[in-house]
Amino acid sequence: MLFSRLILRPLLTQRLRSLVTILGVALGVAVMLGIQLANSASLRGFSSALNAVSGKASLEIACPPAGLDENQIPGLSWLRQWGIATPVIEAEVLAETAHGSEMLKVIGIDALRDPALRDYALLGQEGEAAGTQLLSVLAVPNTLILTHGFAARHGLTQGSSLRLIIGDRALECHVAAVIGEGEGTSASLSAQPLAVMDIAYAQDLLGRTGKIDRLELRLHEGVSLESAEQGLRQRLPSGWTVQRPQRRTEAVEKMLAAFHFNLTMLSGIALVVGLFLIYNTVSVSVMTRRAEIGMLRTLGVTRGQILRLFLGEAVVLAMIGAVLGVPLAKGLAAAAVALTSTTVETLYVAQSAVVPELTVLHWFAGFIIALPLALVAAARPALEAANISPVEAIAEIEPTSSATVESRGRASFWRRLALLVILILGSWCAMQPPLLGLPLWGYASAFCAIVAATLVVPGTLIWTANRLRSVLGKLGIEGRLAASQISASHRRLSVSVAALAVSLALTIAIAVMVGSFRETVILWVDQTLGADLYVRPAALSRSANPPSLSPATIAAMHTHPQVLAVEAHRSMELPFRDRQIRLSTGDFEVMLQHGRMVFKSGGDSAATLRAARTAGELLASESFALRFQVNAGSSIQLNTPNGPHEFRIAAIFYDYSNDRGTLTMDQSLFAKYFGESQPTHMAIYLKPGADAEQVRDEILRSLSGKARLMIFTNASLRAEVLKVFDSTFAITWALEIIAVFVAMAGVAATMLTLVLERQKEMRLLRLAGADAAQVRRTIVIESGLLGLVGQGLGIAVGMLLSLVLIHVINPQSFGWSMQLHVPWLFLAASTLLTLFGTMLAGLYPAWRITRQSLRA
To answer: Pick from 96, 225, 284, 685: most CB atoms within 10 A?
Structure first.
């Protein structure tokens, strides 16, 4: 009964404030859970595809990055004692149909052996297809078997045709059969965008003649996985690797760990703001019901009961917020997947992410996120309620002035001491190395900065009100009244202003970090992109070893009369210390004559490059150096087809194309240790006076019908780089905007509460001669002052946070350094918008208090 009368009834009466608080919690829960769902979806998309393709394979034998030489396969007949081995070649291509285009994974298989690892329930046939049936289906060149999921999306059936774009080549293929949904591995296989071909045709199609990507091994019954793995390592040729298929998922999980962790931290911003609102709601409840609390205490209600009543209010708000937030999370997760898909596919791995359906566990997670944090947020005001003196509360008076002064003095002292401790702790955290490969100490430092911001809010409100009272007095009595009200009500206003300041600080920090990163990338592009034209296949494959450019394309680049030099590149994946890195090749001779490369150590880059080419040394990206703790002069061991080999790192170069780390070697060095390779990208240097656009058009016309290429001029490639960059941070801005809007709604709710509390005071002002417009202006000015304080603190703390992001969190997460760039125009625009937004938030309370006639 007490809970209903003291807590629930006021919540229902003050519907706007309750609604804003619930909305804040709901958005916080939805954003945080939604990001977790999106993170799970991106990893599950890769994992489910991997599991479907791997089928019943227990182990994989490979020789990255170039693949296994098929001539060595007959010498592995001893593998039969462990299980059934089958060769596989795999790549991602673009499929074009009448219903659109979609990336399609093509796997080449040995039709006679492969049914032992994967089940093929072909439509129109009973049971699973045997090896001879599969061989007869795939015996015709340029035919393939499609999965039911892909075929249904594109309206394809047996006998249909589709066009595959492999690298820069286009090939017309025919659907020989469709894999039905079936059961077991066939069902999971059928859901993937997948095509199956005969391995010989696939090798020719993908330009991988004589090579296979891996041998998949299904162990015999009773053979121990651990013993087989150990035995294979002992007998396989040096340089060959053995791993479980799940390790590829683990490698991707490690690659995505920092990206997902940072998204999770950002998603917590909206939740923190929602908790500020709970704190504010419970605080206002305590302040407005002091007399009721005092009466209850005199009637025998204990301190513990009062404490539980107000904690119960926080629980109610949190539970309703969680109930609304969990369903909302699924929609936000879908939006997050869309916003992050470009980043994940550009920097990490191709994905086919589908947001999972909500389960009981997700509902449980929603409540686990909201309830404990809400109790923490409400603990302080609930304790204050429990400690209210009954006599003073009933008399509606504040404690005696000497007690008040003493109490405020103690509070001010402890606040200053806490601020000093927090700042020292934050500085210490910022100097710590990453923990478990994640910038945990960096986020602890950022958290200290946020706590420090909340501690200085009360003093800042009083200082601002006192300093601006004379300035605001020039606006009339309304300005002086607004300043006085802020000074008198600073305790009640502090929480809302703190929530706004924290949201703005994080927004400003992100803006400074993104702006600094963008300017750094622009500088990097200006310094490194020196070629006139850049060539890549139209279908950009995310395969570990993507298809190369065709001989016709390579010849067209070299033979054009306006071409001065061509620099060929190839990039592929290579396992290194339980992670996947990028290994790229380039023509160091051409780079010496025409290219530009920026090394972290500075100095003469041409001399560094020349020395690396002569000595057979590697170049390592900054992210590689930071992730694996190596420097120029360090030696690292790489697995080659002929066994492990020590390579020396000649220099560290700046690279913002990926965060997993890149090693670059000269083409001749790659050919010596890994075999010959064909380029996947090319940089073209033109003769002086040549028109890049004209040469680009001439090359495309000469290859018309022969190749599918993307040829960028220097300027258009710069624009493409910035387009990818901006899309990468789209979700960051979305998360920040949600937090700021929730915080501004909190300011509006607080102003409404304070205005309703001061109804008697406002009526006295009206009776003393103030008209309704003057009262409204007073409230709007007061709201604007709150926005001004919030923005001022936001800029100060945001700049501090930006330093942590730029110099601690970003290098520890991604291995990228950047130069500080302050976006002054953004800061000025955000200040005006914040001031306008908070003044707008005060309009409704102002109208609410003045809508009644003075007679009423």
So the answer is: 284
